[in-house]
User: Fold this.
Amino acid sequence: MNGCGRTSLDRDAATPTSPIRSDRTSHDRGWAKVQIGRVCEKSWLAHRLNLECGMVHVGIGYDVHALVIGRKLILGGVDIPHHKGLDGHSDADALMHAVCDAVLGALGEADIGHFFPNTDPRWKGAPSRVFLQEAARQVAFREGRIVNIDATVIAQEPKIYPHIQNMKLHIAEALGINFRRVGIKATTNESMGFIGREEGIAAMAVASLDLPEELLPTVI
Assistant:
């Protein structure tokens, strides 16, 4: 033992040439390799899961049409008895148009007018389910799927609630999804603005899509 209270054995254990220290270093290196291997494996699994499960993308849509005499009132593919109908180039189904824009938005695409311009005579008086079917085709083309749709109709008159179930069925059929994935609500505008004066009807929608995610290779 020296003056500091340490023995020669203590000094040997602290030196780099000590067998005990050498074994620890070897063990630590082995442990580190195992951890790096686990990180690489987890990274690879996460990459595969992202490719296979994809990522949810969300889009929003909004549409509004004026109420006029002499037109049918079509909302969500349902012909609703009313003394006015929505004016437009197609059947002016504001609800289906909003849903269509929401789906296209989740895809990062342009709005419904880009795919079906109101200057094209082919879409004169066309049922809006055609537009939803095309939006669904765009999703399928990208190997995605529609997770759900949530929409709200804003109308002072007529009452929308009695027709909501049929609207859900029509929209689900056009998109090729279960009707339980479609939510539709209705509200008034509390007699305010052009909607409150019964000059028009608006609709807004949100769509969520599950799309394959293209990722760059992970570098460790």
The domain at 55-211 is CATH 3.30.1330.50 (60s Ribosomal Protein L30; Chain: A;). The helical segments are 8-14, 19-53, 94-106, 112-115, 129-141, 164-175, 193-196. The first strand starts at residue 55 and ends at 68. The chain has two domains: 8-52, 55-211.
